[in-house]
């Protein structure tokens, strides 16, 4: 095969094939890498392919945001008369069923496909980095690849790992450094795995801190290549890449998950308070303006999102979304009317003003028995009534890290009731809601933050991880507190994927 058939083509083929058989394509990839990484343009193309792989439907393009992981967190109504539907099985944490095993295996494969792709880029910044003339560009590419690897490995930990505190079940996990897909990753203990994560994130931060255009320009500016600030277009659209602020946000998320609350609080607060050289905040909380423009995924507060051209397909097919006069099936992802009410129960009269409540839910959809089944409009838009110029930066996106999460981390980790209250007031102000009863203690504030994770990030796959890091013994199944055991938080590693006795990085 001629070398002009480049490495990125195989990566895209892997993405389109749902990350199947990725161990089998490595031999072909080796022949293509030399050409792929012979120029800066080739590195940029490989990085683009990395984000496309990350957006595969088996992981962040759907299952780890909209559907499967939300079912694990009991975010969706789970009615199934036959009790065999995959959504029902995952909601009840039946990991031994064939349907659940298939879905879990698919997520696992695609996570490690993405990690392996990142490793190839990281490796080539070392051996072929001289083909990138500008050191700052080389640092950005390596920093982003390290950050993507860390992002995925964080979620390997959150899905397949042991409870971060208080658990009895211990799990060793694979952390992949290999640029050779045929080499199986080494398994690490929990503490070793965490150290690997911290090392990757720290290096990514250091590489991007003095090189990322997002340090000097707002995301709005960077989403407009027509301003001609940079001769190189690869320096634009930093919101859709692991920019410096996204890496910092990932760092805060990871530390909060690990129980290093004070450190997570400090990083989150530093992002909230960060400014550009002109004194403007790097990013602000999203309010009603996004909704008024039909930007329901709240792009104005995204520190990192995936650009995904077909996101509306899944908003229609899986979530139903804003489609009028639509009857939901038993197998879709939606709420019951009682679940929606329970979701906002701690916010009296939310329906009167709360902009998430009023703009993210289609409350007119029903099942075939005429019962209301609210559907999520976060990813839905009317394709016949949309400004195409806004698609790739405002509508066709999947949020991966948002400023709202930084506020919740800062509030939960605060050691000052006054600070926690002030932060929460600002956060709720962006939702156009006033909490008339102030918190009486930090414990009250932290309890409400749990509610916020359930409603703020619905359709983004964060509730299950919140329950797991806190070691909660109950979830809200169909809106009702339901017992959950430790083992239900730990997804089984697919035995067919990797050998746990593998050695070597």
Describe it for me?
With 505 residues, the protein is mainly alpha-helical. The protein has a domain of 247 residues: Serine Threonine Protein Phosphatase 5, Tetratricopeptide repeat, CATH 1.25.40. It has 21 helices and eight strands. It has a two-stranded antiparallel sheet with strand order 1-2. A two-stranded antiparallel ribbon has the order 3-6. Strands 4-5 form a two-stranded antiparallel ribbon. Helix 8 runs antiparallel to helix 10, helix 10 runs parallel beside helix 18 and helix 18 runs antiparallel to helix 19. The longest helix is centred in the N-terminal third of the chain and has 30 residues. It is globular. The two termini are 29 Å apart.
What structural category arises from helix and sheet content?
Answer: mainly alpha
CATH-level-2 architecture of one domain: Alpha Horseshoe
Termini separation (Å)? 29 Å
Q: Please tell me how large the radius of gyration is.
A: 22 Å
Low-pLDDT parts are 1-17, 21-31, 498-505
Shape: globular
| Residues in β-strands, percent | 5-15%
- Please describe the biggest sheet, giving its number of strands, its sense, and whether it closes into a barrel: 2 strands, antiparallel
Mean of pLDDT: 90
CATH level-3 fold name of one domain: Serine Threonine Protein Phosphatase 5, Tetratricopeptide repeat
Query: How helix-rich are the residues, as a percent range?
Result: 40-55%
Number of helices: 21
CATH top level of one domain is Mainly Alpha
- Across the major sheet, the strand order is 1-2
Number of strands: 8
What is the H-and-E element order? HHHHHHHEEHHHHHEHHHHEEHEHHHHEE
């Amino acid at each position: 095969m001629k070398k002009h058939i480049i490495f990125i083509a195989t990566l895209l083929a892997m993405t389109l094939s749902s990350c199947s058989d990725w161990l089998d394509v490595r031999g072909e990839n080796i022949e293509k890498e030399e050409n792929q990484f012979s120029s800066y343009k080739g590195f940029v193309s490989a990085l683009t392919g990395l984000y496309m792989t990350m957006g595969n439907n088996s992981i962040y393009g759907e299952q780890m945001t909209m559907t499967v992981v939300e079912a694990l967190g009991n975010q969706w109504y789970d009615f199934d008369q036959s009790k065999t539907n995959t959504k029902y099985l995952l909601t009840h944490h039946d990991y031994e069923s064939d349907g659940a095993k298939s879905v879990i295996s698919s997520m696992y494969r695609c996570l490690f496909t993405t990690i392996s792709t990142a490793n190839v880029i990281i490796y080539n910044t070392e051996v072929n980095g001289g083909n990138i003339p500008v050191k700052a560009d080389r640092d950005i590419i390596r920093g982003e690849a390290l950050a993507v690897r860390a992002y995925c490995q964080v979620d390997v930990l959150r899905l397949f790992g042991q409870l971060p505190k208080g658990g009895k079940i211990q799990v060793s996990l694979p952390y992949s450094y290999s640029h050779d897909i045929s080499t199986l990753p080494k398994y690490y203990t929990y503490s070793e795995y965490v150290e690997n994560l911290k090392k990757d994130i720290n290096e990514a931060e250091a590489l991007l801190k003095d090189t990322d255009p997002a340090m000097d320009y707002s995301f709005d500016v960077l989403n407009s290549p027509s301003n001609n600030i940079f001769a190189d277009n690869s320096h634009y659209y930093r919101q859709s890449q692991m920019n410096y602020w996204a890496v910092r946000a990932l760092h805060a998320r990871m530390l909060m998950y690990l129980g290093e609350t004070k450190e997570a609080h400090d990083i989150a607060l530093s992002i909230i308070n960060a400014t550009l050289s002109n004194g403007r905040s790097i990013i602000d909380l999203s309010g009603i303006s996004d909704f008024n423009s039909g930007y329901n995924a709240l792009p104005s507060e995204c520190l990192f999102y995936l650009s995904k051209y077909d996101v509306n397909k899944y908003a229609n097919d899986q979530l139903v979304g804003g489609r009028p006069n639509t009857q939901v099936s038993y197998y879709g992802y939606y709420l019951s009317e009682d679940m929606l009410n329970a979701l906002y129960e701690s916010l009296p009269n939310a329906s009167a003003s709360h902009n998430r409540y009023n703009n993210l839910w289609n409350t007119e959809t029903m099942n075939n028995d005429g019962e209301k089944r609210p559907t999520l409009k976060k990813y839905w838009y009317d394709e016949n009534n949309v400004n195409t110029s806004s698609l790739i930066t405002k509508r066709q996106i999947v949020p991966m890290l948002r400023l709202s999460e930084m506020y919740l981390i800062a509030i939960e980790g605060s050691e000052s009731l006054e600070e926690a209250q002030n932060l929460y007031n600002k956060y709720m102000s962006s939702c156009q809601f006033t909490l008339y009863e102030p918190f009486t203690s930090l414990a009250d504030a932290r309890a409400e933050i749990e509610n916020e994770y359930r409603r703020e990030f619905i359709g983004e796959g964060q509730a299950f991880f919140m329950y797991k890091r806190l070691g909660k013994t109950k979830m809200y199944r169909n809106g009702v507190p339901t017992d959950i055991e430790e083992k239900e938080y730990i997804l089984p590693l697919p035995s067919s994927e990797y050998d746990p006795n593998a050695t070597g990085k």
